[in-house]
């Protein structure tokens, strides 16, 4: 699972702890700005799950961060074969916990592991699943806005699923203003780099194209230092 941020420490991170009388905590999988992701066993089903713990805060004025609320709302509506499944969510102490199906790895790890051979058939399959996931979202009028290899999770069966919907938004009519400060820099469409506040599903498709090129070359396609380098790179391949 892709990580989500920092949270409590000490006993809260101890393995073996039972959360919500159901989830037995295991190893930490990753950390980020807003929470931590750890492996757990669902004692009700026996399945392995991934739990994202998001810090809420002691001050009631802080409340639950909007990123968490959006992710919960959208994932309850987006139920598709190439979308990560949100199984459960519950509060515990000063944290909110989101329970997801467990995925073995992510696309970034596969790309970086030189011991793994990505055949043309593999690349085609991953791209197809990525585009199916995006198509499903776009038909529901949702843009992901954070497409990058480590947000594309891969299960033991090889199935690829879109994850981390914290930056996702509804789009369409009425026309809305959006921030251009989305996506990791190497996956931003040109209109975002120009500061556009009006955009749609095309920004996801641009990022998907960058990821496709990364699958082929095993390195970030637009790995540049600044805006000028970015446009020089685009011009050189056009």
TrEMBL record:
<keyword id="KW-0547">Nucleotide-binding</keyword>
<dbReference type="InterPro" id="IPR000719">
    <property type="entry name" value="Prot_kinase_dom"/>
</dbReference>
<keyword id="KW-0597">Phosphoprotein</keyword>
<keyword id="KW-0067">ATP-binding</keyword>
<comment type="similarity">
    <text>Belongs to the protein kinase superfamily. CMGC Ser/Thr protein kinase family. CDC2/CDKX subfamily.</text>
</comment>
<dbReference type="Pfam" id="PF00069">
    <property type="entry name" value="Pkinase"/>
</dbReference>
<keyword id="KW-0808">Transferase</keyword>
<dbReference type="InterPro" id="IPR050108">
    <property type="entry name" value="CDK"/>
</dbReference>
<dbReference type="InterPro" id="IPR017441">
    <property type="entry name" value="Protein_kinase_ATP_BS"/>
</dbReference>
<dbReference type="GO" id="GO:0005524">
    <property type="term" value="F:ATP binding"/>
</dbReference>
<feature type="domain" description="Protein kinase">
    <location>
        <begin position="23"/>
        <end position="238"/>
    </location>
</feature>
<dbReference type="InterPro" id="IPR011009">
    <property type="entry name" value="Kinase-like_dom_sf"/>
</dbReference>
<feature type="binding site">
    <location>
        <position position="58"/>
    </location>
    <ligand>
        <name>ATP</name>
    </ligand>
</feature>
<dbReference type="InterPro" id="IPR008271">
    <property type="entry name" value="Ser/Thr_kinase_AS"/>
</dbReference>
<keyword id="KW-0723">Serine/threonine-protein kinase</keyword>
<keyword id="KW-0418">Kinase</keyword>
<dbReference type="GO" id="GO:0008353">
    <property type="term" value="F:RNA polymerase II CTD heptapeptide repeat kinase activity"/>
</dbReference>
<protein>
    <recommendedName>
        <fullName>[RNA-polymerase]-subunit kinase</fullName>
        <ecNumber>2.7.11.23</ecNumber>
    </recommendedName>
</protein>
């Amino acid at each position: 699972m892709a990580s989500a941020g920092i949270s409590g420490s000490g006993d809260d991170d101890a393995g073996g702890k039972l959360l919500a009388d159901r989830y037995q905590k295991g190893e930490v999988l990753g950390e980020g700005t807003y929470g931590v992701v750890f492996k757990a066993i669902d004692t009700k089903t026996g399945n392995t799950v991934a739990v994202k713990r998001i810090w809420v805060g002691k001050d009631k004025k802080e409340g639950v961060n909007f990123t968490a609320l959006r992710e919960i709302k959208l994932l309850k509506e987006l139920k598709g074969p190439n979308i990560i499944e949100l199984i459960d969510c519950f509060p515990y102490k000063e944290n909110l916990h989101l329970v997801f199906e467990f995925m073995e790895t992510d696309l970034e790890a596969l790309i970086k592991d030189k011991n793994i051979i990505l055949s043309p058939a593999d690349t085609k399959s991953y791209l197809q699943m990525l585009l199916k996931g995006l198509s499903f979202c776009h038909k529901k009028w949702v843009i992901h806005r954070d497409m990058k290899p480590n947000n594309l999770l891969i299960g033991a069966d090889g199935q690829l699923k879109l994850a981390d919907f914290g930056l996702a938004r509804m789009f369409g009519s009425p026309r809305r203003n959006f921030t251009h400060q989305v996506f990791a820099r190497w996956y931003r469409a040109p209109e975002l780099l120009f500061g556009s506040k009006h955009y749609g599903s095309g920004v996801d498709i641009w990022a998907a194209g960058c990821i496709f090129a990364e699958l082929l070359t095993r390195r970030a396609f637009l790995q540049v230092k600044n805006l000028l380098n970015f446009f020089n790179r685009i011009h050189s391949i056009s």
